[in-house]
Amino acid sequence: MGFSGKLGFVGGGLMAEALIKGVLQAGLVGADQIVVADPSEARRNLLQSEYKVAVLADAVELWSRCKVVVLAVKPQVVTKVLASCKAHIVDNLLISIAAGIPLALLEKGVQGTGCRVIRVMPNTPAIVLEGASALSCGQGVVEADLAIAKGIFEAVGLTVVVDENYLDAVTGLSGSGPAYVFTFIEALIDAGVKVGLARPVAETLAMQTVLGSVRLAMHEGKHPAELRAMVTSPGGTTIAGLHELERGAFRSVIMDTVEAATKRSAELGKLVLADDNK
Within this chain, do residues 203 and 65 fall inside the same structural domain, yes or no? Predict the structure, then answer.
């Protein structure tokens, strides 16, 4: 859904740029409705030149101009940024994509301002408008707030809404997931080279195979096991390869990988809260 006010970005890095590109292409807002605050002159110049948006060197003014603000800064500076701007925060909708910063800490930073907070865990494919984002709502968030946040992130992919206590699992699966997929693609390419294919040929075949398989799974809506069975003939090449995956405990490795990342996300969240309470 579109809205008539201004959309602000505190931080103009790659993820903020992806969101700007997405909302503009989706027609959610016009370029004249976007304001970006970033300390880097190079980033400000790039965003202003590429997307024709307004830019600021300091975030303080942005809060009074924009009722919807996406917080896209590094996690270690979130507390400092909110503290420096708090006097100018009044009834804003704050959408944070700062990794690992819990709602409790964000809400503490804007306490008494009437600001509502939504925390989002996106992933890097949002850069090519194919992201997966999970949204968690803080206190006082209403349906209209959530609709705005969903609109922004649906402009760069798909969204789900979850309770915050599931965001560590989201981080372990979709947040870190692209790295697992890239590692699999890399291994598939190397495997092609090992059996005699030229590396450029192996790269093309591996990446298209992964892309096509995902598109097929989403198009057909069938369980992955059914799609796997479609290419697994009795006594054939595919079952021989799958046997080696089973021998190597491929499924268990993937499950352990996601679980380890989930646990680490939870540990980092606790460290952030502990540091804030010192």
Answer: no
